[in-house]
Amino acid sequence: MAQKVKIKAILKNAHIVKTVWEANPDFQMGDVQLNDFSMICETAEGLAEEYSRKRIELTGLKYNRDDKVKELNVLITRFRSGIRGHYGPDSPQYEQSGATRASARKSPKRKSNLARESSSGNRRVKL
After folding, report:
1. Whole-number Å distance between alpha carbons of 94 and 40
2. pTM of the predicted model as reported, rounded to 2 decimal places
3. How many Å apart are CA 109 and CA 116, to the nearest integer?
4. Residues 37, 13: Cα–Cα separation, whole Å
5. The domain containing residue 95 runs over which residues?
């Protein structure tokens, strides 16, 4: 499983590294220079800020979407109830609306005595 990227902690550590690196400009890390590190750090900060702004924007959009979907679900339920009341619970129209006709429903099955006793924790077997 992939690890979660801890943005705030990494950016905080990047500022610490940048401060230390600026205090020791003669330090070199392979082909990465202080300027390269600073550019990557600034780009990462900018992207993190942009993500935060868009996340807030999307959160508002998500709540609006959820409200409209809930409102739509209420209307669907009302429609199906109206169809059921007008045509009946076993009508083809009721089934066409996406509901299950009364004749298509399975009747509940009783558990046998053996199954009830085993589920309640008793281990006695009835003969």
Report:
1. 60
2. 0.55
3. 13
4. 12
5. 7-103
